[in-house]
Amino acid sequence: MQTMQDFPLRVSQIIDHAALYHPERKIISRTVEGPITETTWKHIHKQAKKLSQALISLDVKKGDTIGVMAWNTARHMEVWFGIPGSGAINHTLNPRLFAEQLIYIINHAEDKILMVDLDLVPVIEKIIDSCPKIQTVIILTDRKNIPETSLKNTLCYEDLLREQSGDFEWVSGDEREPCGICYTSGTTGNPKGVTYTHRSNVLHALTVTNPDMLNLSSNDRVMPVVPLFHANGWSVGYSAPLSGSSLVLPGREMTPEALYEMLEKGVTITLAVPTVWLLLLNYLDSNNLELSTLKRVVIGGSACPRAVIEKFQNKYGVQVLHAWGMTEMSPLGTICSFKPEVMSLPSSERVDIQETTGHSPFSVQLQITDDDGKVLAWDGKASGKLWARGAAVVNNYHKEDKLAVDKDGWFDTGDVATIDKNGYMRITDRSKDVIKSGGEWISSIELENAAIAHDKVAEAAALGVAHPKWDERPVIVVVSKEGSKPDPKDIIKKISERVAKWQVPDDVIFMDNIPHTATGKISKMELRNILKDLGYHHPDIKK
Ligand code: AMP
After folding, report:
1. Does an H or E element contain 261, and which?
2. Mean of pLDDT over the chain
3. What does pTM read for this prediction?
4. Which atom of ligand 1 is found nearest the CA of 414?
5. I want to staple 312 with a disulfide (CB 3.0 to 4.6 A). Which of 177, 318, 379, 534 is the partner?
């Protein structure tokens, strides 16, 4: 006899909950058409139902995949729930990917329909002929704003929804059915698809809302600057409605000025990669502005510089939550909130801890191992390969025969890390970016963070370059802040304050820009190619 009920963990339950218990919570959105609009969870719920209905009328079947290329707007939230509600899979598409990558992932995922913001129609026009499985393109706007396009078989989103009653039961099924797919921005080889299930997304959202993680509640107003198409949108599309939070959605306008305008609409917590915050902080400083409602800022995707943590906390009174995660982990794996052991430290030591990416919530397990696979101690010193497993961690990439995990279910994150006695994890590198000098490892992240602490440095990337004696030696590529010319000796001095003498880079290379991947991370691979093309070599190597 089954003693307790089965309650299938389907994402549709999340939007049902938001509409029932938090119907009037505001969703403020900068539309792609321009104006800032307001709607509610109740309305998004109704629209999502109409979309599910419409998709079924377009012959969408359970398990079909629908590609979505859209900015963070209220309409995207309708789509976020309308697709899985119809039994289909929401395939998030990053418009910044190269055409070949987009074509690859659309074909690999076998997208049947595309849903696309009106300004991104030209991106689709360029690739559509190479995507034979696409039957229809739904343009996410109303009739009045439909752009001229060479695409055939297009539909207008608002017209499509107007034809539906919204009187519809979500397509039901097992909680282990797929509901979303996101491809990783692999630096080598083809992108790999991570297929989230209803269950993994619900469990992940339940996990990350808890107080030691995002601490979300119905009193919060969340602004995801991180696009919904990056790494499962950092779960905000699920965790905000699950906790009844209100939302502010910035659309496609990513200038500090536009973001500031949206932050001042009562936002209490916001999430993005460090570069967004570096730009915003500069803007606030130069215009003497304050953040009147913001309480917490979640920073992840790449290492958060100490200066950003200090500026947010000391000048603007906003708590930084440094986070680590991966597309393969749905994506949040750790967040740096304060356990009592950390809370009791003096504030400068707390900032030391905030340079780590924090600890895992229930349902995420981590371990670090040495090159021989021996599990390393959590002493904050031993650094090794970082492995993860849990309820929302990948098991198998889309259509790959080989499992993505070892025999005990551990997934190799490709990161190198230390973990301290309180479980705070510090990423020291991607395993392929570690600088190996004389048999010792040097953390490129540590060098970059030290360089960026120099007030004239805008961005920095540390690399290992070939050296006749030491195998590799570190050098640092630097982009100066606009209008400034830092002295390379000062940069080296600044780094020397933070790392051991033998770890200090041997050379400073100035560049106008550092190349980034489509998700905004420094592309070390491209940077290495640039240096190679320039014929760069370590200063000790004579020509
Ligand atoms: P993605 O799947 O594109 O989000 O990339 C995941 C990778 O980003 C991780 O494996 C890390 O290498 C890196 N990453 C994410 N968050 C951080 C962080 N807070 N510090 C350093 N690296 C990070």
Report:
1. helix 256-263
2. 95
3. 0.93
4. 10
5. 318
